[in-house]
Each structure stands twice: as C-alpha cells, then as structure tokens.
C-alpha cells in the first residue's frame, strides 16, 4: 500500500501545531529519496493522534561543502523557513530542527505536488501560447519569451540546438525570487518548485543559503533589474525591523547561522530597500545552477 494511503484523514492544523507535530512527533522512516547528494529520508511523523508525511535530512548524511564550511545544511534549511515565515509569504513548508532515528537533522512537512501542474521544465515550440503550457518553467525555440513569460537565457538542448529558458511571469515566482535574493540561495533549480493543489507554490532544498558572500544562483532572473513590487518593498521594510538585534527572529537565526551570515542577511535586505529593484547577476559566480532542473 502506498505510504500516502496509510495516513489517516487529516484535520486542519495551524502552523504552530504543525511545527509541534514535526518537532515532537515519532518519526518512522518509510524509505530514502534517491538521487539526492545528501541523505533524504521519507517518513511519517505522528503525535497525539495526528500523522503526516515528512522529509527527514540527518546531519550525519550531509556531504561536506568546501565553500560552506560553517554550520549545517539542516540549520540553513530551518533558517530559510524562518525567513519565509517572517515575510508572510509561506513559500517554504514547515521545517524544524530535531533529533531523529539517525541523529540531529531537519524535518520538513512533505508537500504533495499538484499532478495536474506538469513538469517543472518542459520544451514547447510556440512561445506565443501553445496548448498544455507548463505553469512555471519552459524551453522555447523562439528568441523572445512570449506573453506571460520572462526570459532567463539560452541553453544547449542537444544535437547542436539551443532553446530559450523562460519562467512564468507569476506573482508566486516573483515573491520567491525576492526570498532567494534575501537568503542568498546558491541553488534555485526547477525541481525545487512544488506547485501544490489549490494554486499554492512551495519551494524546497535550501541547504546552500545565507553565505556571507554573494552566491545567488537561480532560474528566476527574469525580473533582474526591474522595480520590486509595492508588496515586496513593504515586506522588506517589515523584515528589516524583524531582523534587528534582540528580536525573536534574530535570536532564533543566531542559533542557526553565523554572526557574519546574519549581518550579511541584514545587509542584503538593506540593499534591496535602497535599490528598490530585483538584483542582477553579480558576474563573479555562475548565475544559473547546474544542472538547472
């Protein structure tokens, strides 16, 4: 029987209740998510009659990264969730740091992607509106993205062919582009985007974030240099206040990232407030992650 079928009917849990479930609940490992460079375990978590599917990433299963020598992937995943919640955008699934069957690690609510949303990246031949358009990312044969799409850049697609990589001009993605700029995400790939039922968008895999140096690598460059939305400007103002030393958010983050990383985080938020624009690629670091999906 598939794991999802073993989960009882769900009651509606608030964010705080979900975090309690993830933190205090009993973890049962169902299997390993294959293809990941670090240990990713698919689990159930049960607490006081409630049970959910989740992902558990033990620190013991992390591969060392020469350019991220401080902290752990798990800590940065939780820090990304904290910032996502502070923006009010809820782009990162509930994520906590806890002990588990294989030691300390990150535990995150499992998100069932909307099966009707299509693949994260697909190839299509008509940038102007072919049927069955993918909702978030696409490869197009034209040199312009077409209405409703933003250009990222050209990519080799084999047999000497190139295609234009585009992403949807979607307010959910635009919020995520701002969040990635704030947390300095070094690995925003198409496979990290999870369209959920009901039109909600989640983003996962935030282990390479919060570096004190500019490491932003993303597929969401379509708004580079454009003015931030009024909503984003207001959110950055609110986030700046929430990151002031001594606040609850700053105190939580200080337990997850280094002092230098926390200072750099404040600096990125300040820079966005001053410029009022989406950042452009820096030039000193590959702008697009590889592989992109």
Overall description:
The protein is an alpha+beta fold and about 290 residues long. It folds into two domains: about 5-110; about 115-225 and about 280-293, no CATH class. The protein has six helices and eleven strands. It has helices at about 15-25, 75-85, 170-185, 230-240, 250-255, 260-275, and strands at about 25-30, 40-45, 50-60, 95-100, 105-110, 120-125, 135-140, 150-160, 160-170, 195, 200-205. The chain has a five-stranded antiparallel sheet with strand order 1-2-3-5-4, with helices on both faces. A hairpin with a 5-residue loop joins β10 and β11 (about 200-205). The longest helix is centred in the C-terminal third of the chain and has 17 residues, at about 260-275. The radius of gyration is 19 Å and the shape is globular.
Describe the SSE topology.
Elements: H1 15-24, E1 26-32, E2 41-47, E3 50-58, H2 73-87, E4 95-100, E5 103-109, E6 121-124, E7 137-140, E8 149-158, E9 161-168, H3 171-183, E10 193-195, E11 201-203, H4 230-242, H5 248-254, H6 259-275
Parallel strand pairs: 6-7
Antiparallel strand pairs: 1-2, 2-3, 3-5, 4-5, 7-9, 8-9, 10-11
Organism: Streptomyces halstedii
InterPro entries: CHP03843
Protein name: SCO1664 family protein
